Amino acid sequence: MAWTPELKELEKRKALTAKMGGPERVKRQHDGGRLTIRERIDRISDARTFHEVGAIAGVGEYDEKGDLKDLTPANCVFGRAKVDGRPVVIVGDDFTVRGGSADASIREKPMMAEEMAKTFRMPVIRVIEGSGGGGSVKTIETKGRSNLPGQVGETRAYHLMTDALGHVPVVGLGLGSVAGLGAARLTSSHYSVMTKTSAMFVAGPPVVARLGQPLSKQDLGGWEIQTKSGAIDHAVDTEEEAFDCARKFLSYLPSSVHELPPVLPATDPVDRPVEKLMKAIPRNQRQVYKMRPIIETVVDEGSFFEMGQMFGRSIITGFARLQGRPIALLASDPYHYGGAWTSEACQKIVRFVDMAQTFHLPVVYLCDCPGFMIGLQAEQTATIRHGVRAMAALNQTNIPWCTIIVRNCFGVAGAAHQPAGRLSLRYAWLSARWGSLPLEGGIEAAYRADLDAAPDPKAKLAEIEERLAKLRTPFRTAETFWVEDIVDPRETRKLLCDFAELAYRALTPEAPKVSMRP
Questions:
Q1: Last residue within a domain, chosen from 193, 218, 251
Q2: Is residue 263 over pLDDT 60?
Q3: pTM of the predicted model as reported, rounded to 2 decimal places
Q4: Cβ-contact 216, 205 below 8 angstroms
Q5: Contacts for 385 with CB less than 8 Å, ≥ 6 apart
Q6: CATH classification of the domain holding 365
């Protein structure tokens, strides 16, 4: 063969880069309970579908004759693969090569991964460990100069990293200690998962210790810190679970904003028995109930995929299916602040609604909202400002929307139970009640003069409560068409499946009006 020497050279270089950081560093990775980047890619992708790009990129070492002696690979591995039969881009950090730092990075590789995903309309999965090609103090010495943040190449990398959010689904997997640029890449995603032995921070413990805060990795940026703060959506015990989460998340979404979500064959009957919904809401208004069993009952069996459970806990967010059709689901959780919208819940709503809008997912909202959270903490966290932003996010959407008022709907936050200025579907359960504010606590303020003048204030209060209770029945509201339909809770699944069918008639695979933000 005329090109045998060159072919042998290529095979030699591929063999050298396949060794990654060498046997000792690979062993250290395994001893820490972590896979290597190449093992991770093999586990995420369908068998034998990974096509690597830039496999022999790195730093070569040559002898005096100019022949290659050794090759240290770049610490970024990326390429195209298939996940459950769908083409994706996978880009990952090789922690065995300089801990993923800038010393061994070739920044064009992760940049090309983002460009490829956007150009060819494929989801991107970022597998992140270390600084993700970010800074290292040693870089000053190895490069012979100090980096000025914001140089042309660097800012372009940041732009590509965040711009992808408005075009294709982005998944971030944090599978070790993640810092700096790596943390930015992990959180700049639609869905992020970390293993419970991992940690994430802007700067690690040695740097933070200089601030007088001697903390371990877990105390500074462990999974409980990051999921409760909302920086990370989910935490799992093993890397295999993280891969499963990534696959399931992507199964609800189109490959890009230019397609509609994938519809699966319907396997769960629309009219299956849902008798327990009649007892789901207690008559005693002070008695709490569990929302997640209601969700599981009305959506396709086993289809609910929750995200961000530990953050903004008065709101539940996740994907589900109705007769095989993907939807975005919002639901109040009365176990946390009675379902009131807190500052964190409002931030969670903005991000989730933006994602639904970006990827053409119809929204179902199971509403039990007593209003915005009140009190000192609510004021200190600017709840009303974040709340107004959440209302704006709802009103900026044009995706189909259906609301089920399960129990409470009060105040300004209650007014945000559906987008303003356009058609949406709305149903109220028999247990629904609403108003500018709940009667409890408001009567004393509104009828203070009457109560003070009454010979028996308690009896007068009971009389007023009984009178107003009859007036605020949802049937009075329905008389004037202020609410469209009051329904038997057992009809809910059928109504929602009907909504999903209508919604998919109205959806079009066009670029959204509102792009997703990190």
A1: 251
A2: yes
A3: 0.91
A4: yes
A5: none
A6: 3.90.226.10
